[in-house]
Automatic annotation (TrEMBL):
Family per record: Belongs to the TSR2 family.
Name of the protein this chain belongs to: Pre-rRNA-processing protein TSR2 homolog
A Pfam family the protein falls into: WGG
Organism for this UniProt entry: Popillia japonica
Function, as annotated: May be involved in 20S pre-rRNA processing.
UniProt keyword annotations, A-Z: rRNA processing
Chain residue ranges for the region called Disordered: 101-138
Swiss-Prot/TrEMBL GO biological process terms: rRNA processing
PANTHER family: PRE-RRNA-PROCESSING PROTEIN TSR2 HOMOLOG (PTHR21250)
InterPro entries: Pre-rRNA_process_TSR2
Length: 138
């Protein structure tokens, strides 16, 4: 169940979706995002003394290093808080509250809340996008 929640949160996370759609993670941005989901699930479920700040730091690092994206909209804090809350419910075994909270959260909707395409869909071939290159020195 945690995997489904993480997948839904990430597919509804506008900053990540835009980074993928604009290939900020390179030509394989979609695959990088999928690997990120796998990594976050593994990281969250394997760390014993995981704190909210740990999740924030990991997500911040991933967005910066893998997608050359700095999130200034506090979405990393929001996503981290959701992940942390759901993880705590999972660890306590409270599946009833876990399912209830998942249904009540706007970030865990079945469909993304905006009209942008999800990570699992390909952009149409005739889409006209301008590639934005990072100005940061690497």
């Amino acid at each position: 169940m945690f995997r489904q929640i993480v997948e839904r949160i990430f597919s509804n996370w506008t900053a990540l979706r835009l980074a993928v759609e604009h290939s900020m993670g390179g030509p394989n941005s979609k695959q990088v995002a999928i690997c990120t989901i796998d990594y976050i699930i593994q990281y969250c479920t394997s760390e014993n003394d995981l704190e909210l700040e740990d999740i924030e730091d990991v997500l911040d690092d991933i967005m910066d290093q893998e997608f050359n994206t700095i999130c200034e909209d506090n979405s990393i804090k929001e996503v981290s808080q959701l992940l942390y809350n759901f993880l705590q419910l999972l660890k306590t075994g409270d599946t009833v509250q876990l399912e209830k909270s998942a249904k009540e959260s706007r970030m865990v909707e079945e469909e993304p809340s905006t009209s942008c395409q999800t990570m699992n869909e390909d952009l149409p071939e005739d889409a006209e996008w301008t590639q934005v290159k990072s100005r940061r020195k690497k």
